[in-house]
Write a structure and sequence with these properties.
With 301 residues, this protein is of the alpha+beta class. The chain has helices at 13-24, 70-82, 91-98, 100-109, 126-132, 157-169, 227-240, 268-274, 278-289; strands at residues 2-6, 28-32, 37-40, 47-50, 53-54, 60-63, 86-87, 117-119, 138-142, 151-154, 174-178, 186-193, 196-204, 219-222, 244-252, 255-262. The longest helix has 14 residues, at 227-240.
Length: 301
């Protein structure tokens, strides 16, 4: 099988592991920097070009598209879908999961547990917005933030008002969420592949840090999921339309609440914490699922 991996950096741990796993299972694999791909979208036969060459046909593509280049990366992915290449995660699903507000609205509509979340545009509504999510302490998030950047814990009402006013004054899109105190600065990353949770880890924030991101000094340990947590993670990935996803869950007094569904979850933390070969599980999923023109949307969405 011929597999393409859309990644800006072939040396990244996740990209390297996927290449190793594909080669070990007898596949031909190539890493393509999606920003160097360009396409002919005017002909009846869509084509994709890379660094001056016409790309051959691929059986499957694994998108590892960074959030800052989602627009162009998903355009390249959509072109591959139109050419009949099987995407591990479809362009529509990647775009959907990257829009934090839209993804939470979709999860809410399907009854998935999540923190009380508020969204507003006018500074005049700040008081009501704070009250809506249960008052301080509360969490303020930039919609465009990733890896814990642009996430602020406001411990008092006054602090919350100041931070929200500052963000809105910069015309930044933010959402305000209740602070799940009982989570104790920890969350659970559930790694979903093909409708099953194949690995899970508990990420604990560094001392004095409420964000549990490993990039921010958090630590990861193996964790045993409850049936409810497992079911919530699988359902959240399905709602987003993602075959491979990292679903971030907090343990609250009212059960598991979903914080985010990630369409390009990193492999390093989960493989080291669990000792599982997640990269090979993704390749095995491709072997079982990849068929030409199997994309549900076929690049239409």
């Amino acid at each position: 099988m011929r597999i393409a991996i859309l990644s800006r950096n072939a040396k990244l741990y996740s990209t390297r592991r996927l290449v190793e796993a594909a080669i070990n299972r007898g596949h031909e694999v190539r890493v393509l920097d999606h920003l160097r791909c360009y396409m002919n979208i005017s002909s009846s036969k869509p084509t994709l070009h890379y660094r001056g060459e016409d790309l051959p046909h691929y059986d499957a593509v694994i998108p590892r598209i960074g959030s800052s280049v989602t627009f162009y990366g998903t355009a390249v992915l959509r072109q591959l879908e139109m050419m009949g290449v099987y995407p591990v995660n479809e362009s529509v699903a990647v775009t959907r999961s990257r829009d934090k507000l839209r993804s939470l609205q979709l999860l809410s509509r399907k009854g998935i547990g999540m923190p009380i979340t508020g969204f507003a545009n006018s500074p005049d509504d700040i008081q009501d917005l704070i009250k809506m999510v249960g008052g301080a302490p509360l969490v303020i998030k930039l919609l465009e933030g990733t890896q814990g950047i642009g996430v602020v814990l406001a411990e008092t009402k006054k602090a919350a008002e100041s931070v929200i006013e500052a963000f809105l004054g910069l015309n930044a899109n933010i959402m305000v969420q209740e602070f799940i105190k009982e989570a104790g600065g920890a969350d659970i990353r559930c790694f979903v592949v093909g409708g099953k949770v194949v690995a899970a880890m508990k990420r604990q924030g560094a001392e004095g840090e409420f964000r549990s991101n490993l990039h921010r000094g958090g630590s990861a340990t193996l964790v045993k999921l409850t049936p409810d947590e497992r079911k919530t993670a699988v359902k959240a990935a399905q709602i987003m339309g993602l075959n491979v996803a990292g679903v971030d869950i907090l343990r609250s007094n009212r059960g598991p609440v979903v914080m985010e569904v990630n369409s390009s979850p990193g492999l390093e933390g989960i493989e080291k914490a669990t000792g599982k070969d997640v990269a090979s599980m993704i390749i095995q999923f491709i072997e079982k699922s990849a068929k030409p023109h199997k994309t549900r949307t076929r690049g239409k969405g």
